[in-house]
Amino acid sequence: MYELNKKCIYKSLWLYSENAVASNGRKIFTFNNLPLIQVKGDKNYIRVSSIAMKSTNQGDFTGHIWTIKLGNVKYNHVNYFNTDKNSIPTIFSGMIDSVNMFNCNNNVLEIENQEVNQFYINVLSDDDHGLSKNSHDIKMYLNLIIEEHYD
Predict the structure, then answer these.
(1) What is the DSSP secondary structure assignment for residue 56, as one 8-state letter?
(2) Domains defined along the chain, listed by start
């Protein structure tokens, strides 16, 4: 017999790079005026559930290791260590394959109780380009999952 876990709430947030304000080089994407996201659990986690990328030239994003960092979100500094000595937490690091999709469950960030309606992501490839390469814009779809755990 299975018992449903009523002590955990999941929230799914879909982000599309074209709906954000992009920096020069398309490395930083600021998502303004998001619907209010209330995080109120006793322990809260955020993770990347899936990523999809699209470009007119498929070789622009395949074969690279991508790193995505999440900014303007309060997180547990005690339980987080970033080896690049950057204070912005990494929520994804991996390669997107030729199928244009990556499902991941590895990087989890513990976040604090907060209300979020604006944050930014920093997207960078291993050869230091953002979501633009060879004069082609790379479009990215990102699914974030917020887990609120209650005791």
Answers:
(1) S
(2) 8-149 (2.60.120)
3-class DSSP state of 149: strand
Burial of 76 (0-12, 13-18, 19+ CB in 10 A): middle
For residues 52 and 41, the model is more confident at 41
Per-residue exposure over 98-130, b if at least 16 CB sit within 10 Å of its own CB, e if not: eeeebeeeebebbbeeeebeebbbbbbbeeebb
Give the global pTM: 0.87
32 backbone dihedrals φ, ψ, rounded to 5°: -90, 155
For residue 2, pLDDT beyond 60 = no
Residue 44's Cβ-count burial label (10 Å; 0-12, 13-18, 19+) is: buried
Residue 29: pLDDT band with limits 50, 70, 90: very high
d(CA 57, CA 62): 10
